[in-house]
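User: Could you write out the 3D structure of this protein bound to S-adenosyl-L-homocysteine? I've included everything you need below.
Assistant: Certainly. Input first, then the structure.
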Amino acid sequence: MKAAVPITKMIKFDLITIFPESLQAYLDTSILKRAQEKGLVEIKVHNLRNWSQNKHKTVDDTPYGGGPGMVFMVEPIFNAIKELKKETAKVFLTSPKGEKLTQKKLTTFSEEKDAHYIILCGHYEGFDQRVHDNLVDYEFSIGDYVLSGGELPALVLVDGITRLIPGVLGNEQSLENESFTNDVLDFPQYTKPAKFNGWDVPEVLLSGNHKNIQEWREQQSLKDTKSKRPDMSK
Ligand code: SAH
């Protein structure tokens, strides 16, 4: 019988932006950096201007019907997607009008087979509606507020998905108790020193009694969830 071959998962991301440098520093740091080094994710940043049709490399124009601001043109986006989109790829668009991102969604995306996500980062007034209507598989928002660009939302998505890939976090157990994973918030954590400035670490955590510690943590989780996020306690 053949020995089982470990299934190694690799997720690909292509980020399309007019500010590539604003993404790179974050991608080259900490857990995302290590995940790339381990070959668990491949993250490429592309400058949308590479797909501009004119010599000034413009990718936006004024809105039809008038009004302030600039709108990303459909053609450069169309060309970028045409070049980058392979069979299993899905095109994600950052937009305050999109579906709000949740931990459940991130889990689904991290578990997708042959996952390849192309993420469009908008700016100014956003995208020509024909991009939304014809070129995109999923529009997501990171919350009910408006940012100046899609770069932070794109990083939120990449980070949130990447840390769920098996092998990315040093200690997979840290995923088990996290906020939202079990529909409750995480319990409070403390570290040394046990006494500082009159603020003491709860006795139970110093007791060495694992059963009591476990119980205390569960109670705190529930208490915090009830008071901070009553909407989750239903
Ligand atoms: N005029 C648009 C906002 C454009 S904001 C509106 O009112 O709906 C410019 C860009 O920032 C968007 O194209 C999107 O890429 C990004 N963006 C801003 N807020 C966001 C949010 N909450 N979630 C995801 N992307 C957002």
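The CA atoms of residues 119 and 148 lie 16 Å apart.
User: Perfect, thank you.
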